Amino acid sequence: MILANDPFLGLWRFKPEESRYEFGPMPENASYRIEADGDAYKITMAWMADGKDIEQVYVSVPDGVDHPFESAAVDAIWMGRIDARTLDTAAKKDGEVISYATRILDEDGQAMRITMSGTTPDGNKYANLAIYERT
Asked: Residue 15: helix, strand or coil by DSSP?
């Protein structure tokens, strides 16, 4: 069970001036909400990029096990709590990791650094860095 005092829980606001994207459009603004859902995290990401509002929601248990996920691009999500300030997620398709995200909280828990890496459709590796602050 995710505890109420888990340092990842809360609403986070995107800081584009501190972020760097190698692949895809950088959001003009974004929020990242992490909530407890029993043994799982419910993650709601909302952002505006290229003038379009987008929202994505998923629920995953940080137990280090693949869990089925239904979408055209992904069929499993793996999530692991690496330590008290690090939460990793892998999105998989047919057993292969297509993207990997590492969330690291700063010492005081007021900022979250998310590095998402993967391979573009044309085979190039990328790493996007998104910085969020707790609201």
From this structure: coil
Cβ proximity of 27 and 16 under 8 Å: yes
Alpha-carbon gap, residue 21 to 69, rounded angstroms: 26
Rg of the Cα trace of the chain?
14
**Domain assignments of the chain as residue spans, ordered by start:** 10-134
Is residue 109 classed as helix, strand or coil in its secondary structure?
coil
Beta strand spans in 40-85 (E): 40-49, 52-60, 63-68, 76-83
CATH architecture label of 10-134: Beta Barrel (2.40)
Scan for tokens 């995710």, then name that residue: 2
- Tell me the pTM: 0.94
Q: Between 133 and 123, whose confidence is greater?
A: 133
Instruction: Please tell me the total number of residues recorded for the chain in this structure.
Output: 135
pLDDT in tens, 41-84: 999 999 999 899 999 999 999 999 999 999 998 999 999 999 99
Q: What per-residue confidence (pLDDT) applies to 38?
A: 95
